[in-house]
Design a protein that fits this description.
Strands 1, 2, 3, 4, 5, 6 and 7 form a 7-stranded mixed β-sheet that branches. The longest helix is centred in the middle third of the chain and has 18 residues. The protein has a single domain, classed as 60s Ribosomal Protein L30, Chain: A (2-Layer Sandwich), CATH 3.30.1330.40. Strand 5, helix 3 and strand 6 form a beta-alpha-beta unit. It is α+β, with helices and mostly antiparallel strands. The chain contains 3 helices and 7 strands; from the N terminus they run βαβββαβαββ. InterPro entries: RutC-like_sf, YjgF/YER057c/UK114. GO terms for molecular function: deaminase activity. Pfam families: Ribonuc_L-PSP. This is RidA family protein.
Length: about 130
């Protein structure tokens, strides 16, 4: 049976959007695409702060599941203005992931539900 992974600060995903920030099934944790709004729902104007915020949210979901970034097996990042902040993204990502690195796909998109968001990341983690 799938088990929802819901950090307290992300409870609005369940109540407002009827989705789990993470869902564990058969040792895998599938994460909803998370944007770069901070824990208070505020969205920074610059991509660097948004990228930092989204990695912090990923960390919250992993921690709630009893996992860490070393458990990530796949990451898909969606970007508005990919080439404008790709180097910043790579630098920030390198602070969180380590070998063996998760598989990663970066995709340029036209926009997100949240106006002003420039990044959304979806991940899959696996228990060892």
């Amino acid at each position: 049976m799938p088990k929802p992974i819901v950090p307290k600060s992300l409870q609005s995903y369940v109540t407002d959007w009827m989705m789990s920030p993470g869902l564990e099934h058969d040792g895998f944790v599938f994460m909803t695409g998370l944007t770069g709004a901070d824990a208070d729902g505020l969205l920074a104007d610059n991509p660097t702060d948004q990228i930092e915020a989204v990695f912090e949210k990923i960390g919250m979901v992993l921690t709630e599941a009893g996992l860490g970034f070393e458990h990530l097996v796949e990451m898909t990042s969606y970007h508005v203005g990919l080439r404008d902040h790709l180097n910043a993204f790579k630098d920030i990502r390198a602070k969180y992931v380590s070998e063996p690195f998760p598989a990663w796909t970066a995709i340029e998109v036209a926009g997100f539900v949240r106006e002003g968001a420039c990044i959304e990341i979806r991940c899959i983690a696996r228990r060892n």
